Amino acid sequence: MSQLGVALLKWYDQNKRDLPWRQTSDPYQIWVSEIMLQQTRVEAVLEKYRRFIVALPRVVDLAVASEEDVLGLWQGLGYYSRARNLHKAAKQVSEQYDGVVPRDYGVFRSLSGVGEYTANAVFSIAFQEPYLAMDGNLLRVASRLFAVSENITTKSAKNHLKDLLEPYLSRTRPGDFNQALMDLASAICLPKKPRCQGCPLIWYCQAEKLSMAEALPNRSNGKAVPVVPVTIFVFYNKNGEILIRRRNDGAFLQGLWELPWVEQVPTEQVSETSPKYQIRDALTSYTFSHKQWLIQLRQCSVSQLEMDTSPEKWVDPILVEPTPNSEYQWVSVDQLGQYPMSTVFRHVFSLV
Question: For the chain, which domains are there?
C-alpha cells in the first residue's frame, strides 16, 4: 500500500463517522445508502435510511412493495426517480437472480439506475473489490492532491483525476479507502476554506505546497437554473378537506401526491373577479436540482355542486390543460402525512 494510503486509512480508523450503513456488509443495504446519498447530505439521509431498512430489510422486500409505499419511505429525499429505479432494480434482482444481489460487476451495472459510481461504491464496500468511487467529493480532494486546475465538471478532467488517484487505491481495504476520502472531504477538504493544517495528507498535497488549495477545484458555474412560473391551487371544501391528486402520465413528479398545479395559468382563465372561487394570491419559490419554481398560490373554496362531481371535470378547465390518468382525493390536513408527496407541496402547506 502507498504511504498516502497508509496515512489516509490511519486517520480514518481514528476519525471515521459512525453511520448505520457502515455496520453491515449486506450489499443491498449498502446499495440503498449509496442511492440515497447521491446529491443528498448525510444528515438528511440518516433517519430516512433507518426507516427504509426497517420497513424493507431485504431486496425481495423492496421488490414486492408497492410504489406508493416506496415513495412514502423516500419522502423528503427528493430525486424520486432514484427510488423508482431502485424499486425496478430490486424487482430485476428478485425475478432474475433469485433475490441475490449479483456479484458480477457487469451484471450489477446493467440493473436499472445503477451507474459507474454506484457500482464502484457497492463493490468496493460490500465485496472489497478494488474500484474507485469517484463522486464530486473525491474529485475535489483529487484536484487538490495533484494540483489539477482543469474544470472538474468535464469528462476529460474526471478521467484524468481518476487515473491519478487510482494507483493509490488500497487493494486490501478499497471500501475503507473510498469512505475515508468521503470523510476527509466532509470534515477537512471542504469546498471552501479547507482545513489543511489538520489534513493527514498535507505532506502529499500539491495544492497545499503551491498555496492553491482554496483556488481549487476549478468548477464552472454551468448553466443558470431556469425560473419557471407555476400556479399551485389549494382547493378546500366546507369540511376543511384539501384536494390532492396523483398523476400517472410519466411527467415531472408523476406517481406522487400533489396539489393541482400548472405552469403559469393565463389570467383570463382564473381572475380575482372569478364568481366561482374566493382567491387569495401568495408568492413563494422552490428550487429543484434543475429548475426553480416561482409559485403563485391560489386558495379556492369549492362549492357543494362541485363536491358532488368528479374533480377532473372542473379542475382541468381551471388548469387550462387536461391531466389524464389522474387520481383525486379529498383529505384532511391531519391525513396529509400519509401520502407520499414532494417537499415543495409540504412547503406550500406551511404557508396556508
Answer: 3-215 (1.10.340.30), 227-351 (3.90.79.10)
